[in-house]
Design a protein that fits this description.
The complex is a heterodimer. Chain A is α/β, with parallel strands linked by helices. Chain A contains 9 helices and 10 strands. In chain A, a hairpin with a 2-residue loop joins strand 9 (199-204) and strand 10. In chain A, helix 3 (94-101) runs parallel beside helix 6. Chain A is globular, with a radius of gyration of 17 Å. Chain B has 2 domains: 60-251, no CATH class; 253-327. In chain B, strands 1-2 form a two-stranded antiparallel sheet. Chain B is globular. Chain B starts with a helix and ends in a 7-residue tail after the last helix. Classes of the chains: A alpha/beta, B mainly alpha.
Chain lengths: 228, 327
């Protein structure tokens, strides 16, 4: 069953149009990679889904029209976002960051610590004093605490040390295997994406130029559209 | 650095020991000063919820203080003149019962804070400051032009309202009532700050858009905080009116809004006991320096400047460090 469906989505920053027709589908329990070079509109698509900016076209989440909703309503509907750049609440502790976002459901502080044991060790530490990797874990944990049906990870491993990246990817794999959560991953690590994702969508110059299963994402396709 | 918890305990001890000593030494004036400090601290604890937790710089909190005061004044006025407050659609009698007056004050100021909040929270920054100031002035001029309740001259209440089992005319007993309410307000503020609501409010102050992405409506959070804040300040207004047995439009003045904010800033914005420390310092300076010169506010201004320039966590922050603050 399709959980998230974007069709012909267009969006602009002021007078500059950046999305010219983005199409995307994420089914229940599916992990989809949203790929593309820098500046092709990946994060703008995320902003449109989370209603952080206005857009035109069809955005549907489990038959609900997202375009009529505000940002907090989309989150309450079941879309959890770990935003680009982590953006934790710097003055709150790890525990407070997670509790502030908590909504009833499967995910609790203990379960997030089960996924990221480091956060248990840093429970009373302020987010501002954490390393980038730990802040990323807080950002993902915070999104999970909203008990989403779809988790969006925007550049979750960007700028992190290799060992931390491995931890993040291992957590994403666990989420997929153990919870069956639908996940939309924006990342540039093609090798890891191949290991985790079921499908992929490639954006180029604000348009969806390719979509298919991860098996169909051949080196020729990535070379043609992403240049790697 | 002294631990903030220890300093808070010390402040509580000061608030208890001084009035008890004054009672034993037969110094009712000192008890009245401490009662005044406790009431101001209560108003400032209310403002601190909006300002410290929610980042809402309200320059109109005297409106809620005044509404609480006038709720007391009007209730007591009708009780002492044996006239009803209203006869239609149903008969509403005046009352001289403190608990009943507190409930009325809290309800009236919470209702006003809801209306003011809904309209003011459409704006932010300097516009929020201006719109809250405008609401405060609106209530101020309304009270001046309401001759039934004294207009510009204010309204006197001849007997202090009653509390079951206590003699409220005894300064120490009235102080204990005010102090107990202050402690309850501090406990509520502390619990609020640690609750998921308080944490979300704190997060909304730091980054409203990020809060939205986790399913929280920052405006609703701020509105709830503003209403709780206004209700608490209204309760302080009712106690202040009872202390003086007099209400006047001065309770709505923007200068009073500024003073309540000064208590919070001097003590420490977002620090639980900041308002208590600020109110104690203010009342002490008012008493000590006011005897030397009517321009004692100059000295307060210097203190405020020093605190703002060199101690952004307020007096509590200067003594305990900034780590514990919500900043």
């Amino acid at each position: 069953m399709t959980l998230l469906a974007l069709s012909n989505v267009t969006a602009s920053y002021g007078s500059s149009q950046v999305l010219f027709g983005a199409n995307l589908r994420v089914a229940e329990g599916e992990v989809v990679a949203l790929m593309g070079r820098n500046g092709m509109g990946k994060s703008t698509v995320v902003k449109c889904i989370c209603r952080m900016m206005p857009s035109q076209g069809t955005l549907a989440f489990d038959t609900v029209d997202l375009s009529r909703l505000t940002s907090h309503q989309t989150a309450r509907l079941g879309i959890g976002l770990a935003p680009e750049g982590r953006r934790c609440f710097a003055a709150l502790t790890v525990f407070e960051n997670l509790i502030a976002a908590a909504r009833p459901g499967h995910w609790t502080f203990e379960k997030v610590v089960g996924l990221f044991p480091r956060l248990g060790e840093r429970k009373t530490q302020r987010a501002a004093s954490l390393s980038g990797g730990e802040q990323q874990m807080v950002a993902i944990g915070r999104a999970l605490m909203t008990n989403p049906r779809l988790l969006i990870l925007d550049e979750a491993t960007e700028g992190l040390a290799p060992i931390i990246r491995q931890e993040i990817w291992a957590a994403i794999t666990r989420l997929k295997l153990e919870t069956g959560l639908s996940i939309l991953v924006i990342d540039k690590s093609i090798r890891e994406l191949r290991n985790v994702c079921d499908g992929a969508v490639i954006l180029s110059r604000g348009r969806t130029v390719w979509s298919g299963t991860i098996e169909e994402l051949t080196p020729q396709v990535t070379e043609q559209h992403i240049g790697v | 650095m002294i631990k903030e918890r220890h300093l808070n305990m010390a402040l509580i001890v000061v608030c208890v020991v001084i009035p008890v000593w004054a009672h034993l030494a037969d110094e009712p004036f000192i008890i009245t000063l401490m009662t005044r400090a406790a009431i101001f601290a209560l108003a400032a604890v209310g403002l601190n919820i909006a300002l410290g937790l929610g980042g809402l710089v309200s320059l109109g909190h005297a409106a809620f203080f005044g509404l609480g005061g006038y709720a007391m004044g009007i209730s007591a006025f009708h009780a002492q003149t044996f006239t009803p407050v209203a006869e239609w659609p149903f008969l509403i009698e005046g009352t001289k019962s403190m608990p009943a007056i507190w409930l009325i004050s809290v309800a009236v100021s919470a209702f006003a804070a809801t209306i003011v909040g809904i309209l003011s929270l459409r704006t932010s920054g300097v516009y929020f400051i201006m719109i809250t100031l405008a609401f405060g002035q609106m209530f101020f001029y309304f009270s001046i032009s309401w001759p039934t309740y004294g207009g510009e001259d204010g309204l006197s209440v001849y007997v202090r309202n009653g509390f079951p089992g206590l003699n409220t005319l005894d300064p120490i007993q009235f102080f204990m009532i005010c102090f107990a309410i202050l402690v309850a307000a501090l406990a509520l503020a502390s619990r609020l700050a640690r609750s998921p609501f308080g944490l979300a409010l704190n997060a909304a102050r730091q980054a409203p858009q990020r809060v939205e992405t986790v399913g929280l409506d920052p405006n609703r959070l701020k509105l709830v905080a503003f209403v709780i804040s206004g209700a608490m300040t209204g309760l302080a207004g009712a106690l202040f009116a009872d202390l003086n047995r007099f209400v006047s439009p001065a309770m709505f003045s923007w200068q009073l809004s500024g003073e309540i904010m000064v208590f919070v800033i001097i003590g420490g914005v977002g620090r639980l006991f900041g308002p208590v420390a600020g109110a104690l310092v203010f009342v002490t300076l008012e008493h000590l320096l006011g005897g030397f010169s009517e321009f004692w506010h100059v000295h307060l201004g210097v203190l405020l400047l020093l605190v703002v320039l060199f101690g952004r966590g307020g007096l509590i922050g200067m003594i305990c460090g900034r780590e514990g603050s919500h900043d």
